[in-house]
Amino acid sequence: MQVTRRLGRSMLNKVPEVTLVFWLIKVMSTTVGETGADYLAVHVGLGTSVTGLIMAALLAAVLAVQLRMNRYVPWVYWLTVVLVSIVGTQITDVLTDKLEISLYVSTAAFAITLAATFAIWFALERTLSIHSIVTTRRELFYWAAILFTFALGTAAGDLATEALGLGFNVGVVVFMALIAGVAAAYALGANEVLAFWIAYILTRPLGASFGDMLSQSRDYGGLGLGTIYTSLAFLAVIIALVGWLSLAGGSGRNPEASPRA
């Protein structure tokens, strides 16, 4: 298979195929990030700051393992995504709850930061395609972008459901409609890289709103399942899907083998 050598590393593409299973795990990982972080911070009593520090340490350890791999390994990749989801949620929560920064400000700040990340990534690599994450530098840009998409998605989702008063039930419908619009635009010929990253951002508030709808009490319009049961249920499904991908032989592949996102 074709490999690329850069910064002293040779590897196969480190990102999975973008399929229905990819999006299912992505949405559920955002739900786990939302409900799991709330459970640790509120119900366990660790608080936002301590939870954030613990999850950041775990993310650093798992990301180090991910970076050492020379191909896509499903359980390592998706564990990294789940932890990035939790840390991205915690970053926004700290800014909002601890520092009392307006959701309008944090949403704008994360949007600018993400745009700057993409601009630098493209200036150095001349591509933002996830089908060519074959060097250490590209992978570092990829994970930085993923972190900022989770932080932006959290801030934008909270802005829509809380500050603008949509609520999580309406939020689920709105974000599903927006994602459907992106899918339709892509089907009609919109740029695949742009469509992918917009959809990736939107799945964060969709997953968070869906998690809130399941976990919040009936007094607030939720189903009252609680954060622990919601987190465990979605985590179990993620584990099952990742296990299936591993048994099915999900591995790194030639970036030229998958021309479309």
UniProtKB/TrEMBL annotation:
Q: Keyword Transmembrane: yes or no? A: yes
Entry keyword Membrane: yes
Q: Which residues cross the membrane?
A: 39-65, 72-91, 103-124, 140-160, 172-202, 223-245
Q: Which UniProt keywords apply?
A: Membrane, Transmembrane, Transmembrane helix
Recorded hits in InterPro entries, A to Z, give:
DUF347
Q: What is this protein called?
A: Putative membrane-anchored protein
- In its UniProt entry, the species of origin is given as Bradyrhizobium macuxiense
